[in-house]
Write a structure and sequence with these properties.
- The chain has 352 residues and is of the alpha/beta class.
- The protein folds into two domains: 4-64 and 173-351, QueA-like, CATH 3.40.1780; 68-153, QueA-like (Thrombin, subunit H), CATH 2.40.10.
- The protein is 22% helix and 25% strand.
- The longest helix has 13 residues, at 244-256.
Length: 352
């Protein structure tokens, strides 16, 4: 249960979704009932059949930043930056600080401190520090930085989604949830990509209360687990915010015996991180580094909506903690046999 090999499975390459479903809620949905391990094959638009009045549905309203910037070194060599701490950058700027950011860098040759980088529309960056593929840079020029990044930046798609250079215009909308609000994520909370405005309205008419938390998904979501004993793994911290109204709704539901349903592993981690031993969720903000793996006792979440995750990943370990490792792996085998599409743009799961 604690060996990294316990969370491996084989996925045919053709099952990795390269494009989203034509209509978000037309994606398939595998329903796993934890009580008896049964599986049902549905469409995401069928979600209302599984929810009931009084349920509280918690979504993550983070917004992915087009923070992948492509520019040039003084030599003319191509350089690519991915801004990792955009929400912090905006807070520092609001407090009167400069436009300093931590970035991943991709270039043919090492990028050293002191190098000046040029980007479209007059944006420049000075490299303040360089360490093993990570840069600290100070951006300068270009006017309204936030608007400029939205214009010249590219969507930071996961590495397993392949696009010809410059061909990700449609992803600007497709790789955001319909309720994305607060900028700061380098990856979408992908379980939420299946919702449409019409589906959310139908759930509200049913009597489902929909509330939000914010967790800015970081690059750590793509980093592999590098230890054989998963208990030795350490999560990268990600910034979160839980509004008071969300905490009130979740606490009232739990006190009344109503269900709390988390949309995505990011919501699960946020809710569980800020819930005390008595099961009470606190409002507030901070940095979440909670690693959930089998043996964890859930305090806040009764059901969850998620996608199909990479083998040997912390996300697969989280859903295994929630539903049981064998039940999850059996569900994945059924999904593979049934032709489901996997990963960020793939199909979804409802775990009851």
């Amino acid at each position: 249960m604690f060996s990294l090999d316990d969370y491996d499975y084989h996925l045919p390459e053709g099952r990795i979704a390269q494009r989203p479903a034509q209509r978000r809620d037309e994606a398939r949905m595998l329903v796993l009932d934890r009580r008896d391990g049964s599986l049902a094959h549905r469409r995401f638009r069928d979600l209302p059949a599984y929810l009931r009045p009084g349920d509280v549905l918690v979504v993550n309203d983070t917004r992915v930043v087009c923070g992948r910037l492509i520019g040039r070194k003084p030599t003319g060599g191509r350089v690519e930056l991915l801004i990792l701490d955009y929400a912090d950058l905006l807070r520092r700027r609001a407090a009167g600080g400069g436009l300093t950011a931590r970035c991943l860098v991709k270039a043919a040759k090492p990028t050293r401190a002191g190098t000046r980088l040029d980007f479209p529309e007059g944006l420049q960056a000075e490299v303040l520090a360089a360490d093993n593929g990570m840069l600290t840079v100070r951006f300068e020029g270009g006017g309204d930085f936030d608007a400029l990044v939205e214009r010249i930046g590219h969507v930071p798609l996961p590495p397993y989604i392949q696009r010809p250079e410059g061909e990700n215009g449609a992803d600007r909308q497709a790789y955001q949830t319909v309720y994305a609000t607060h900028k700061g994520a380098v990856a979408a909370p992908t379980a939420g990509l299946h919702f449409t405005e019409a589906l959310l309205a139908e759930l509200r008419r049913l009597g489902v209360e929909i509330v939000a938390v914010t967790l800015h998904v970081g690059y750590g979501t793509f980093l592999p687990v590098r230890v054989d004993d998963i208990r030795q793994h350490r999560m990268h911290a990600e910034r979160f915010c839980i509004p008071p109204e969300t905490a009130r709704s979740v606490n009232a539901a739990r006190q009344a015996g109503r269900r709390v349903i988390a949309v995505g592993t990011t919501c699960v981690r946020t809710l569980e991180f800020n819930t005390d031993a008595a099961g009470r969720l606190a409002a507030g903000e901070g940095d979440c580094d909670l690693f959930i793996y089998p043996g964890y006792r859930f305090k806040a979440v009764d059901a969850m909506i998620t996608n199909f995750h990479l083998p040997r990943s912390t996300l697969l370990m989280l859903v295994s903690a929630f539903a049981g490792r064998e039940a999850i792996l059996e569900a994945y085998r059924a999904a593979i046999a049934g032709g489901y599409r996997f990963y960020s743009y793939g199909d979804g799961m409802l775990i009851l």
